[in-house]
Structures are given as structure tokens and as C-alpha cells.
Amino acid sequence: MANIKDIAKLAGVSISTVSYALNGSSKVTAVTAARIKAIAKELHYVPNAAARNLKRQETKIIGVFLTNFSGSFYGDLLQGIKEGLNQSGYDLIVCSSKQSHRLLPQRMIDGAIILDETFSSEELLEYANQGHKVVVMDRDLDHKNINQVHLDNKAGATLAMEHLIELGHRKLYVVTGTIGSFDSRQRIQAVKQTVGRNPDMQYIEIAGDFTKSAGVLAGKQITQEYSGPAAVFCLNDEMAIGIYEYLLTTNIRIGVDIHLIGFDNIEVAQYTQPRLATIDYSKRKWGVLASEQLLKLIAGIEVEPEHIYVTLIKGKSMGAVPIIN
Amino acid sequence: MANIKDIAKLAGVSISTVSYALNGSSKVTAVTAARIKAIAKELHYVPNAAARNLKRQETKIIGVFLTNFSGSFYGDLLQGIKEGLNQSGYDLIVCSSKQSHRLLPQRMIDGAIILDETFSSEELLEYANQGHKVVVMDRDLDHKNINQVHLDNKAGATLAMEHLIELGHRKLYVVTGTIGSFDSRQRIQAVKQTVGRNPDMQYIEIAGDFTKSAGVLAGKQITQEYSGPAAVFCLNDEMAIGIYEYLLTTNIRIGVDIHLIGFDNIEVAQYTQPRLATIDYSKRKWGVLASEQLLKLIAGIEVEPEHIYVTLIKGKSMGAVPIIN
DNA sequence: TTGTAAGCGTTATCAG
DNA sequence: CTGATAACGCTTACAA
What we know:
2 copies of one chain form a homodimer. Chain A is elongated. The first copy, chain A, has 3 domains: 4-47, no CATH class; 58-151 and 283-309, 3-Layer(aba) Sandwich (Rossmann fold); 153-280, Response regulator (Rossmann fold), CATH 3.40.50.2300. Chain A contains 11 helices and 12 strands. In chain A, the strands form 3 sheets. The first copy, chain A, has a 6-stranded parallel β-sheet with strand order 2-1-3-4-5-11, sandwiched between helices. By secondary structure, chain A is of the alpha/beta class. Helix content of chain A is 40%, strand content 16%. Chain A binds a DNA duplex through helix 2 and helix 4. Chains A, B: Keywords: DNA-binding, Repressor, Transcription, Transcription regulation. Chains A, B: This is LacI family transcriptional regulator. Chains A, B: It comes from Paenibacillus psychroresistens. Chains A, B: Residues 2-56 form the HTH lacI-type domain.
């Protein structure tokens, strides 16, 4: 592990000259700079990040925090974030687990992008109070060191609701997300608004938690109570897949007896048969926007909270109710 | 951003006393320690990682490097790695991109787990030569600072081959992975061995790259050449899904006309209809093992390279060839 | 153009 | 039990 001292000794110059040479300062002759660089290369010199970070008071690393690594959900999102950051010379690291929260307050990263329920909002506000920069994608937080980029949940849920109402559905199950989840709450709120405008609708809420197994459970419950066509709005695709999978084991037909619509348009959604109706949005763009917001926050540029637009994807999993005369 | 100096000033003690107190040394009275801790908490003191890393010459962070973030492939694997590491007080960060390679030589991480084709083996060997600790999961590298944990590719490919031969198949397509991929090469080798033992087999290789779109292309080619039942062994599930998806748009029936088997048992494999036959293994265990190997490497404990065992998962995508008399 | 030296925030050795 | 002080490796005024 060579350091600038070693190089200085070998080159017969002082460490500051080495530092200047390696950082391309014009304060040093082209010849000595070349000589120093040659020696550095030969010694396989790599600057020590800890020392440099300590001096510069920044790491040029941004952390993205996820509740977990599973689910095909995050691929494009992370890709988007990475693109945004790399362009500006920042590196991206992805973290998941309570103990890695420390990376932010300990200043191992210059900022954080949060999509992680294991952070409490109090915790985030405290970090923000200490001057740490944060972008949240999964909650609503007002602080000068926090920016937010949200999905347009209200629009998405409303699109889904209007679609199924248009298809004639009047009996509706809604499988909710984790209690306390921002996205879940916003979606439920929009659902209730739409239901409120359609007084002839029967509305049944099933508590879920965004996981596939919650979907399976919901599927069981719905099957047991089955008494004619019903629409099921799962607040994410993962749970819709759970229901789908469960219904395959019964003789209830999806898109005929039970009608399904999800949210997120995850990859598997297109492989189900019939195709899962769902709400789509650009996960990549969501990520790009989040990274941009964080970089602006770090640079001290003020920004407005932003929204990601959503669209309806129709699928045979959500069919029309036959009109009964 | 309070530091120990601030605390020392407020507590009326020296910085070394503060350091001892905060690190729970017995060299300091319980009362002063308590007083110092109280002040630290009040100031929201958090030790600066850069300074600590610089002094300690370690970061207690391990980096996992992936070629990309997409694909539902990595969830369980990362979960396994994380569990292994967290137990030993290490944090996990996940990286992807050429520029983040720097984290290893710059000593921002104490070691790396590689599942990333963007690292050349030469690059890894150079890091190893500099004393950096690495575990590789995607290649074969012999160095005292590198450990390896591989899938039993040979066994997996052989299982797949024996299965399809047993079902009567004599015409075989193999869709390969990325050229130069260790897993792909090992699997092809096993395939060729089995083919060699069955001289009546017709063997056609289609170059792929482990992506779904490569599968779609392969599907097209196979369809064009179609002249009776054939088995297709895709060297990963992702490509098998590509073929599956393409065949759905044709009137060729999977498991009847074209018989498919993949490798990995990714999540979507169970949603295809008919179910995709594939080779399964515990991705979580693979991760746990990799983290254990890395920690041992760091601790200076010698270990043997390890293998992950694989099993065959049958599926209706791979049916029997009707016996023609 | 190059060298000296201070400082980033910790930890740890050595005196007191 | 507590306090100076050096050291970790680097950057950067300031001096020569």
C-alpha cells in the first residue's frame, strides 16, 4: 500500500509536490509531474479514500436505502438513479438494513435517497437537522434539507377505479399495502373518494402488506366469500401476483369471476395469463428525478417537490361484468 | 457537526478522555463517562467515519459488485450475503458500474464480493496483489487473497441433459450465455460431455447472452427452423422466458412441440404456463457462503473453494417425446 | 517551481 | 483515572 510519502521519497521531492502533481496542478513542472506519475503508477498508488474524505469533507458517494433487495421492482429505478449520479461524478451504493443507516450520519455518504420503511420520519428529520441531505420517495416530509419525489398515487388509483367502474363493477375488494405506508395511504384515499362518488358500490378492504404472501391470503379470503363477480384492486402488483397464483389453484377464473388490477407494472405482470391490468409509470425516470433532486440539494439549489405521472395498462385480468337485465 | 473536541470543551476534559468514555473503556470513571455520554447525546454527536477509518485502517463495510441491478435474480442472494455479514458487524453495500470499482483499491471497503463481468480477471488479480480481499462467484481465480464460491454448474447442466434425454429427446438446442462467462462455459462443457455419450443426438448451439431478448431471438430462429419436436436448454431462465414469451405469439406449443428447460429457477419461472423446467439452487445459501468466505479471508483463515449444490425442477415445459414406432 | 507545516477527526501510547 | 501528543494519509495555504 504505497502512499504519497513513499512516492515523494522515491522521487526525491516533498509530499506536497507529489500531491500537486497527481492532482494535475499547474504548480509543478511537466517533467517532475511526469516522473512522479510514473513512480506512482509503478507503485500501484491509489489515494486513500479515508484520508481524502477526511480532508475534503465529502465522499462523492450517494446511498440509496431500500427496505429489502427482493422483488424485481428496483432494477430500473436504481438504473435511473445511477445514471443521474454518475454523470455528476458521484457513485451510487445501495444499502438495506437498520445498521447501515449509520452511513449517513457518519458522513460516509454525501446524501441519501430513501425508499425504506425501516427509516422513521423522526430519524430522517433528525439527520436533516444535522445538515444531512436526503431525498424521500416514500413519504411526505417538509424540511429544508429534504426533497421529495413522489408517484402520482392519487391519479393512479383513480385511473384504476374509473377503469373498473367503467367495466361495470360494483363489488370491489381493495387489498391495502403496509399500514403506515405513504403510497398505500394515498392510494386508499383516492379509492375512497371514487367510491364516495359511486354510492351503489360495495367496498371491502383487506389489509395487506405489499408482499406476495399477503396476496395469497387475500385470495383465500375472497375465494371463501365468493358469491359472484367482483373486482379486486391490489395496491401493488406483487400482491396481485399472490392472488393470481392462489386463484390458479382454484377453479375461479381470473378476468371472468374475479377481476384483478394491480399497481406498478412489475415485470412478471406481463407473463400472467390473462395479463394483469395495472398502473404503469417510468421507474427509471423516477430514479433520475430523485438523483437530480439530491444533487441540487447538495449544491444548495432550491427545488419544488416533483411528481411522476402514471398511466393505466389494461389487461384481460380485468374484464367487463356481463350486463344482467 | 459536533466532534470530540467540542464535547471535551463542554465537559471540561481532554479529547482522549472523551474518546475513552465513548468507546466504553474502563480507564474512565463511571461518573465522568456518564457525563460525557450525556453531552455527546445532547450534541447529537456521531463519530466521523473518515477519521475513524483513517485511524483504524478498516471500514467494516463489504461491497458486493453486480453487473446490473435488473432481474429478480439477486434478491435472495443479497439477503444471504447481508445476513452473513451483519452478524459479524459488517455492513453491506451493493455497487454496479465501472466507476465504483474504485471503492476497493481506495480502501473504502474492507473487501469485495464479485458477480460482475465488468471486472476483468486481471483487474481483480491486481487488487489481490495489492492485498485487497475478494470473493468471486463468477469466475475461477487462484490467488491467496481471493476465495471462490461457485455453483455446481456441471452437475446442473448434466441434470438438465439427463432429464431431457430420459424424456426421449434427441434433437437439442442449447442457448448459451455471454461469451466468456464462467457459468456459461462450464454448463456448455457439461452439455457437450453428455452429448458425447449420446451419439444419436442432434446438437445445435445458439449464441445468447443471458438476457431475455437473446431468448426472443433464439425463439425466432428455432421457430423458423421448426421441423418436429425439439428440446431447448437455455443456460439461464431469463432467456428461457424470452423464448417462452416469443412462442406465445406463435402457434407452437411449449411442452409439446418445443420443450424448454432453463437454469436458476428465478421467480417468474413458476408463473409460466406450462411451468418452466429448470435447475434450482439456494441463492440465499450461495450468498451466505460467499460472505463467510470473505470474512475468513479478511481474518486470515484459510479455506477451500466451495460449491453450491443444485437440483432439477421438473415442469410441463419439458414433456416427453411421443415414441414413434 | 518546490518545500514546510497546519489541519481534517479519530485512536492510542505514554506520562503524570 | 486523566491529559498531552503523535499518528493515520491527504490537501493546501504560505514560505522559500
